[in-house]
């Protein structure tokens, strides 16, 4: 089940996005599985529909989900050329969280990049 932690430093859309990616990566959500409607999931989680819509849109852009109009939103059956695999999507989300955290700490992009390189052992 998806949930939002109001005490988390991550925005609700980012939490939702990360949870969907994790469920696709671990096979809990498989190709062709239908996700709840934006309104239903927003109501279940107690968040704004636009928050859910943003998470779905970003996951569609990354090739993890596909919208089928009135039929709903589904886990993409296959990763298409030019689309990221779930691991790459997870890494991109982690990088986004890192960038937001370093900005909030007042670090410059060069300082943040140096720390990331150091952590990666490069």
In short:
This protein has 122 residues and is mainly α. The protein has five helices and three strands; from the N terminus they run H-E-H-H-E-E-H-H.
Task: Characterise this structure.
The structure is a single chain. This protein has 122 residues and is mainly alpha-helical. It has one domain (12-120): Orthogonal Bundle (Arc Repressor Mutant, subunit A). The protein has helices spanning 12-25, 38-45, 49-61, 86-104, 109-120; strands spanning 34-35, 65-67, 73-75. A 3-stranded antiparallel sheet has the order 1-3-2. It is globular. The mean pLDDT is 87. This is GntR family transcriptional regulator. Keywords: DNA-binding, Transcription, Transcription regulation. Residues 10-78 form the HTH gntR-type domain.
Structural class: mainly alpha
Poorly predicted regions are none
Query: DSSP helix count?
Result: 5
- Summarize the biggest pleated sheet: 3 strands, antiparallel
Q: What is the succession of H and E elements?
A: HEHHEEHH
**N-to-C CA distance:** 38 Å
**Name of the level-1 CATH class:** Mainly Alpha
User: What is the CATH topology?
Assistant: Arc Repressor Mutant, subunit A
Q: What is the CATH superfamily label?
A: Winged helix-like DNA-binding domain superfamily/Winged helix DNA-binding domain
Instruction: Please state the average pLDDT score.
Output: 87
- Whole-angstrom Rg: 16 Å
Report the portion of residues in β strands. 5-15%
**Strand arrangement, major sheet:** 1-3-2
Shape assignment: globular
The helix content, as a percent range, equals: 40-55%
Level-2 CATH architecture: Orthogonal Bundle
Number of domains: 1
Question: How many beta-strand runs?
Answer: 3
């Amino acid at each position: 089940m998806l949930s939002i932690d109001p005490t988390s430093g991550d925005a609700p859309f980012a939490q939702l996005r990360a949870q969907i990616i994790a469920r696709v990566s671990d096979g809990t959500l498989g190709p062709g599985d239908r996700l709840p409607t934006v309104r239903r999931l927003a109501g279940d989680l107690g968040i704004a529909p636009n928050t859910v819509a943003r998470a779905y849109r970003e996951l569609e852009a990354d090739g993890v989900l596909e919208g089928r109009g009135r039929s709903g939103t589904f886990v993409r059956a296959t990763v298409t050329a030019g689309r990221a695999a779930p691991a790459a999507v997870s890494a991109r989300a982690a990088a986004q969280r890192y960038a937001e955290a370093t900005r909030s700490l007042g670090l410059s992009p060069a300082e943040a990049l140096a720390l990331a390189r150091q952590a990666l052992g490069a």
